[in-house]
Amino acid sequence: MKITTFGALKNSGYQPKTIKEELRDNLITKIRNGETVFNGVHGYEDTVIPELERAILSKHNINFLGLRGQAKTRLARLMVNLLDEYIPVVAGSEINDDPYYPISRYALELLKEKGDDTPIGWLHHSERFAEKLATPDVTVADLIGDVDPIKAANLRLSYADDRVIHFGMIPRANRSIFVINELPDLQARIQVALFNILQEGDIQIRGFKLRLPLDIQFVFTANPEDYTNRGSIVTPLKDRIGSQILTHYPTSIEIAKVITAQEANLEAAQKDQIYVPELARELIEQISFEARNSEYVDEKSGVSARMSITAFQNLLSTAELRMLKNGSGKTSVRLSDFMGIVPAITGKVELVYEGEQEGPAAVAMQLIENAVKSLFPILFPKIEKLEKEGQRYPYDGIVRWFAESEGVELSDELSDADYGRLLDQITPLRTLIEQYQPDAKPEDHHFLSEFILWGLALYSKLSKYRTGNDLQFQDNFQGYLRNNL
User: Fold this and answer.
1) Rounded CA gap, 296 and 293, in Å?
2) What is the pLDDT along the chain (485 residues), one digit of tens a residue?
3) Within a 13 Å sphere around the CA of 131, how many CA atoms are in the beta-carbon half?
4) 191 burial level (CB within 10 Å; 0-12, 13-18, 19+)
């Protein structure tokens, strides 16, 4: 930037805009050029994003209303990309004064003294974003400002002099996007302090006859008001927010997989050394879908997309740990590795009373098993609870194999070779996969084999036991003896 004085800026023909005009004009340009405006946000193309674009075109302050983990803050941060790359400010101004429309005493006096020689600085759009998490201890002084006794003493000023004011976060975010997360957590009296800023664009500090017509794009985020008893958005403040946009969770497993793959932030070694069957990725997402519909999980709290992300990270780390212990260079994710994601689930779901009675680990295990049961009929024939005598069923060969053997014990630390050998000896499994999943990749066969065993166990055709680090599959009769001897 070569322009360093106000005179040079005026000679350049620069035309100042409000921040809402910037957002509107740049959005129009991007839409006309066919550019993607909100990169990295998936599943909102036909719902949230069009509503956000309409709000920006209307020059509204915005409230994103939705459960946790629905990309509310990310959308707010991406709005920065709709700002001009640089804007001029009066050099040294605490509140990013526009040289054409100065509002602070500092800028007004500097422009009066130096005129066209007033020094100009340039503010990059990345610096025009401020964010505050609303907590009960936030004060008006934090957001708006207060009298600074230290400044008054150092400058030997009377408390009646407006130069003793210390500006809060909102004035310092002048000409910027200002986000207040979890707005209902802000005390009602603090929310009231925002009324005039949203309606008139000005602030009042400690009774000073001070009017600062701030230029701010406000974005609020909030959970639905009935989420908890922590608080709510006071009605007059809600009335002053132009657009309230409802967010939502991914509506399909495919969208959820894209989000998890984008956000998982895996190590290069994990990507190169650990093979993940597509069915494993689908199971991870299905677990979140099961949690959102579970009677044990508080639906008002929601189940964040972060659960799928951390569960996927844990899944790969479980496989990686086994690989390291076995001294091998590569491995593949197994269904039994899903035992390793339980901590990622228990830390992300808020249980109702019945869930607490069951126990977090038991609920997590049930969610994993429900995900297997939900996906099983999509890949293989439905398992009938009651079978007609004399009629052949697709799983007869597998059940018979277990009836004639002692079953299979799959240790978590088995090498890939031993794991594959144990599953390959159950020859009816391969026959079933070739018949119903003929296009399955060879490297997916062992995962599918264990998936079938889990499905048969969950539909009570086999017995499944977890003992220490071992997962055992047996015939139902052997399982009965095991439990009664």
Assistant:
1) 9
2) 579 999 999 999 999 999 999 999 999 999 999 999 899 999 999 999 999 999 999 999 999 999 888 999 999 999 999 999 999 999 999 899 999 999 888 899 899 999 999 999 999 999 999 999 988 888 887 887 766 666 656 666 655 566 667 788 988 999 999 999 988 888 888 888 787 777 766 666 666 666 778 899 999 999 875 444 456 788 888 888 999 999 999 999 999 999 999 999 888 989 999 999 999 999 999 999 999 999 999 988 889 999 999 999 999 999 999 999 999 999 999 999 999 999 999 989 999 999 999 999 999 999 999 999 999 999 999 987 656 655 678 999 999 999 999 899 999 999 999 999 999 999 999 999 999 999 999 999 999 999 999 999 999 999 999 888 899 999 987 544 455 44
3) 16
4) buried
3-state DSSP percent of the chain in helix, strand and coil, to 5: 50, 15, 40
The structural domains of the chain, ordered by start, are 6-246 (3.40.50.300), 249-379 (1.10.8.80), 382-485 (1.10.10)
Helices (H), 251-304: 253-263, 268-273, 278-292
Residues contacting residue 439 through CB under 8 Å, at least 6 positions apart: none
Residues 194-224 as b/e (b if ≥16 CB within 10 A, e otherwise) read beebbeeeebbbeebebebebbbbbbbbbbe
Supply 432's token pair.
Answer: 């079933």
Distances (CA, A) of 123 to 1, 91, 100, 180: 10, 10, 15, 22
Nearest to 447 by CA among 274, 273, 278: 278
Cα dihedral 34, 38, 41, 47, rounded to 10, equals: -70
* Beta-sheet pairing, 165-167 with 145-147: antiparallel
CA atoms within 13 A of residue 351's CA, in its CB half-sphere: 17
Token pair, residue 115, equals 């005129």
Backbone Cα Rg of the chain: 30
Return the closest-CA partner of residue 291 out of 261, 229, 249: 249
Give the separation between CA 279 and CA 284, rounded to whole angstroms.
9
Nearest residue to 266 (alpha-carbon basis) of 302, 314, 214: 314
Amino acid present at 55: A
65: number of CA atoms within 13 Å, CB side? 17
Q: Which two tokens stand for residue 172?
A: 């310092």
